[in-house]
Amino acid sequence: MSTADPHAFRPEDDCYHQLSGDPYETETNWWSWNVPERKIGGWIHTPYHPNRKAVTWRIFVWDGRGYDSVRMAYYKKVEDAPMPDDPDLRDITFPGGGYSLKMLEPGMKYQLKYEDKDRDFALDFVFTGAHPPRRFEPGEPPFINTPHYDQLGHVEGTMRLDGEDIRLDCWSVRDRTWGPRGGPYAQSRKQTYATDLDRVRDPGGARWREIERERGRGRIQYIFGHADGGSGFLGFVRPQDGTADGFSPMNGGYLLRDGVYGNLDASRSRMRALRDPETGWCSHMQVELADDLGRTMTSEGMAVSRMSEHGYGTNQLLRWDFDGKIGWGEDQDVWNSRHFQRMLHALRAWK
Predict the structure, then answer these.
(1) pLDDT in tens, the chain (351 residues)
(2) Which residue intervals define the domain DUF7065 in the entry (predicted)?
């Protein structure tokens, strides 16, 4: 890992950070995996609040049987569990019956274990990075000042689900973010708009798309797909900067081909989502990518299963077609409830 780049991942970044005394300072670690032939997607997600010495962790697995916490294949969440002083993220077992995480190689290799005997569920896998963690370009939304890293890796191990041991052997992504988050930082501090339509940068097109493009609503979409350790893409979608034809620009990601990474060119990378009129969730995506190496890639994604903790925002397992390959990844579609409700009402309108 290069030290010439001031934003490069450093071995000490495997530890927790503490940037300030802000009570809303939060540091996350997130891990994902999939089993495509079973339509299975899985997450571990853990926000830690260092100035409150509390952590919330959740582990969930979804497939075709249901999307909410009751119907999901597995769901467990423990909120605001007290953390010990000076927790070491390189070798830790999270309180409240949580998972264990052990760093095996700085920035590159980690082992995660978890067991819930009451549900006959367990995880035991190793994540091996395909590359050093990649820093989101500082100064760009959605992470203006907050450090954020993404890393593609190979997930290998086992998951016990309903008493069945299922092999994990996939390519997926982990990330880390730290800094102020939640509370007042979740509220828009943009200008006041006279009407909702004044929030739309490029009016026109379908009314539900206009609503989706309203600025200052906290909308974000994060998508990725990989066929192996040397091919795929990742990026943040900016719906509020989209155009009336439904295309939204992408930034903060990469195009990966033949093992070579190129940073996305936000002026030429975009995504168009098609939504199911019954659920409002994305069913199909068209992605056009360009990078700073002059390369381009087109990809089509189709949602095969999903989870939604609250019934509006979703995490979905997507099948992607690009470069003559089939890849797998996710669509993380983030909304606030009122905004999603208005968009869905317009999408369902019959006159």
Answers:
(1) 445 677 788 899 999 998 888 888 999 999 999 999 999 999 999 999 999 999 999 999 999 999 999 999 999 999 999 999 999 999 999 999 999 999 999 999 999 999 999 999 999 999 999 999 988 866 777 777 788 899 999 999 999 999 999 999 999 999 999 988 777 666 545 567 878 888 999 999 999 999 999 999 989 999 999 999 999 999 999 999 999 999 999 998 999 999 999 999 999 999 999 999 999 999 999 999 999 999 999 999 999 999 999 999 999 999 999 999 999 999 999 999 999 999 999 999 999
(2) 32-181
Return the CATH superfamily for domain 25-183.
AttH-like domain (2.40.370.10)
Identical fold at 25-183 and 193-348?
A: yes
**Hey, where are the domains in the chain?**
25-183, 193-348
Question: Who's near 250: CB < 8 A, 6+ residues apart?
Answer: 235, 236, 237, 238, 264, 266, 269, 270, 271, 287, 289
Q: Model pTM?
A: 0.94
In the three-class reduction of DSSP (H, G, I as helix; E, B as strand; rest coil), residue 145 is classed as coil
DSSP label of 268: T
- Residues 264, 288 contacting (CB under 8 angstroms): no
